Amino acid sequence: MNKGRVFQRLVIFLTLALFAVLTLTGCSGGVIAPPLPTDLPPPESSPLPTHPPAATPAPLPQTGVTYEDQLVIQYGWSKNEVVRWKDGYVDVYDTTGYPFLSQVLEQWNEIIGGTVIFRLSSNPASPVRVAYDNTLSFYGYCGITKVAFKGTAIAEAEILINPFDLVCPLQSTFLHEFGHVVGFAGHTTDGGVMDAYNTGSTEITPTVEVMLKRLYELPVGYSWNPVGRELGEVLWETTKYF
Ligand SMILES: [Zn+2]
User: Fold this and answer.
1) What is the CA radius of gyration of the chain?
2) Which residue, 33, 72, 207, 231, is most buried by CB atoms nearer than 10 A?
């Protein structure tokens, strides 16, 4: 028997079998339903759900908030206003004698771009004061910075440095703590000097650089969302560097 005949018989058998099944089940009164058209019309729109979908929160008014602004909001001392030093010179009184401190200040000054300039001073009443603290090792800290605000301006800062260079590489510690003093309040996780842990990195990463450049382009107290908290009169905040 050739293959054509086998196929023909198979088709006849399957047709009869299908007819028998349809008859037994009573489908369409025992008549084979006409084939469905191949070009089906699009289905009707699906029925509405019985309950409304969860409301999505309305987006915050972000008109004019650039990527640079977002970095200021994310890493600044306030999440609502521009908190930085007022334009002009900021004196730094150093009791550590760290020989590269002026270089540290220069690095931040260059990023700030001239609006505010940090400089060493011999006046103990300078708004920024730097000292070594042997006891930081007991707490596992490489450095601590306390910053005080008047309104939305940074008014004072105290830096304590763990002097044990083998445990806490000094250049990294000085750079990091001054990063907080100039206005970068948060910590990065990009391997740079503003990460929360002292790995010895002295790299000021683009996130930090872009944030600070933008911070000092904006006026003190500038706000994208004026309903936020106000920084109090001489409120101190502390950051710790491990
Ligand atoms: Zn820190």
Assistant:
1) 35
2) 72
The rounded Å distance from CA 239 to ligand 1 centre is 5
The number of beta carbons lying within 10 Å of the beta carbon of residue 49 is 7
Distance in Å, CA 134 to ligand 1 centroid: 18
Cβ contact 176:208 at 8 Å: no
For residue 31, the CA-to-ligand 1 centroid distance in Å is 82
Tell me, in angstroms, the distance from the centre of ligand 1 to residue 114's CA: 24
Give the C-alpha separation, 209 to 223, whole Å: 20
Instruction: Tell me, in angstroms, the distance from the centre of ligand 1 to residue 159's CA.
Output: 11
pLDDT for 221 equals 92
The single-letter DSSP state of residue 84 is: B
Q: Rounded distance, CA 91 to CA 1, Å?
A: 106
Amino acid present at 191: G
Distance CA 160, CA 239 (A): 11
For domain 67-241, give the CATH number. Answer: 3.40.390.10
How many angstroms separate the CA atoms of 85 and 50, rounded? 56
189 Cα: distance to centroid of ligand 1 (angstroms): 12
Residue 109 in this model has a pLDDT that exceeds 70: yes
Domain boundaries, the chain: 1-31, 67-241
Tokens read off for 92: 């730094």
Q: What is the pLDDT of residues 133-157, one digit of tens each?
A: 999 999 999 999 999 999 899 999 9
Residue 240 CA to ligand 1 centre (angstroms):
5
**Cα 202 to ligand 1 centre (Å):** 13
